[in-house]
Amino acid sequence: MLSPNNRMSISSTAHNRDRVEEVLGAFLASPPAGTPDEVIEAFGRLVRTEGGVLPPSVFMEAFEQSPVAISITDLNANILYTNHAFEHLTGYPKDELIGSSQSILSYKVTPPEVYQELWTNLAQQKSWNGVLINKRKNGERYLADLTVTPVLGTGNNTRYYLALHRDVTEVHELESKVRNQKVLIESVVDAAPVVIALLDSDGRVLLDNQAYKKLLGDMRGKEPADMFMKHLSEVIEMDRKRACKKRTGFVNHEVALALKHNLTSRWFSCSGVWVNESYPGADFYFSGSENCGLLLVANEITAQKKQQDQIKTNALRALMAEQQLVHGMRETLSGAIFQCQAPLNTASAVVAMMERRDDVRSNPAHTALLDIIKSGETVLGSLQEALPPETVEADVPININEVIKDVIDISIQRLLEHSVVVDWEPEADLPNVIGKHYALRSLFKQLVDNAIDALDEPDCSHREIAIVTRSIDGQVEMIMRDTGPGIPEDRRLTIFEPFFSGWQKQKFRPGMGLTIALEIVLQHGGEIFIDPHCKAGCEVHLRLPVAGQTASLRTDDD
Ligand code: FAD
């Protein structure tokens, strides 16, 4: 129980204190003669601290006027003192509080372990801080953030407990709302079927969703964010601060992430928005320094892309089939013209010889030859007229890697049927060449077809075509190596001549493919040759100038 003395000393009013200080001040200013020194010193302590600066009443006033609820209790938590804020917070008047237990505030739902912890700490003369559920006088509940500190007296014995407490209901509600919102956002982001990642200014992943984590697994440890950023560098504004300020981002930028093999890629449509992320450190509390992060959203479009590719490949295949048909007709008709031209030339020479030697007017052989020549020329004229016109194409910038990819796509069925493995290593940043799309596609198709035919020749067990592209000295080079029988040295130039066919299995081919291929290479100012140093199989080197320089057919001596 509270003693009357205690109650007096702690709850004296500010007015009384002022009055006491006034009287003591006047006494100490001119103490009556003979006042013992001990009395003067004891009275002096009441109006000054030990350093002589602040009188104890200032501390009382400070307690009283503090906006934090303060209470002082005895060792059984019986209240000896409360300040004004305490009354305000709890709704109890001071006279109801003094002498009551602090448990008057308990709403009786705080788990007993919390109180146990509080009292265990106090028993060890340690401060305790925690949150309790309190109730005001009107029964209203509130969350009290409570700090209790033992006040030690002489001999280090605990004499009182000092408690500071404040209502944190609103803060808790806000924190709960933020937490709930975070959980909600995370669940939505996690459940989203698109890849989402928040990257800091150094490109590190701060936050990601399940789809991102799955992609990370699929990429076998390669950070997808790094790969996305590498591809997106062209569309990302370099000045991050400005981008953040302007809130500019990018929308639906298509990116292909190469998987294990370059022939298979996963396609994503990427969008990004810049977000400001505040530095949490104390140093930035007022300056509000911000970090510019990127919220990256990537929607997988591999299926659509494959469908588009399929449509494109089918269209290309149809176009090429049509153009090949035209080429085939031109090839056959040219062959026929060539075949007719030779005997006609001979007949014309014989006629000229006959006419020079004798009178041929009555010579029936001469007449017959003239008839043959005439009808031959008529046939030749008809054949020339029947030649389908060549496709006229414009010169455009072309990426050879794309052309090769198209050709592989078009040839995929044939490659599968012949169990041929294609090992393709395209150079990542291959410069464009200037050329004709269809012509170059036909050229590469011819080379791939030849390589497949070569692998179909007898005694060819290993079936592989390796294609490499690279840029050297202002030229784009493509090297295609097959594991077929190879080309003997004496045929390395002949194979480019018209009507030459060296196939063992397909003997009756017209033999115009490489002739046309050479013509296309020369039209593009490039060069094509068979590597003389290749010991196993055949290695075709094809070089096309990046800036339109011309070159000619190489010989082995080059
Ligand atoms: P009680 O029987 O009072 O106590 C519950 C458990 O606390 C007991 O089982 C016991 O383990 C322990 N305990 C109680 N008294 C002591 C003691 N004297 N010594 C050692 N262990 C003891 N509680 C609030 O709910 N709200 C407050 O705002 C609040 N402020 C406090 C301020 C101070 C300075 C102190 C010292 C305590 C305060 N308490 C407060 C705790 C309060 O005194 C009670 O312990 C608590 O309210 C539980 O009350 P009860 O009646 O349910 O159980």
Describe this structure in words.
The model is unreliable at 1-12 and 549-558 (pLDDT under 50). The strands form four sheets. Strands 2-1-5-4-3 form a five-stranded antiparallel beta sheet, with helices on both faces. It has a five-stranded antiparallel beta sheet with strand order 7-6-10-9-8. A five-stranded mixed beta sheet has the order 12-14-15-17-16, with helices on one face. Strand 16 (527-530) and strand 17 form a beta hairpin. Helix content is 44%, strand content 22%. By secondary structure, the chain is an alpha+beta fold. It has helices at residues 4-11, 14-29, 37-47, 56-65, 84-90, 94-97, 112-123, 169-191, 210-218, 224-232, 240-246, 302-357, 364-386, 400-417, 437-455, 513-523; strands at 69-73, 79-82, 128-135, 141-152, 158-167, 195-199, 205-208, 250-258, 265-278, 290-300, 396-398, 421-425, 433-435, 464-472, 475-482, 527-530, 538-545. Helix 12 (302-357) packs antiparallel against helix 13, helix 14 (400-417) packs parallel to helix 15 and helix 15 (437-455) packs antiparallel against helix 16 (513-523).
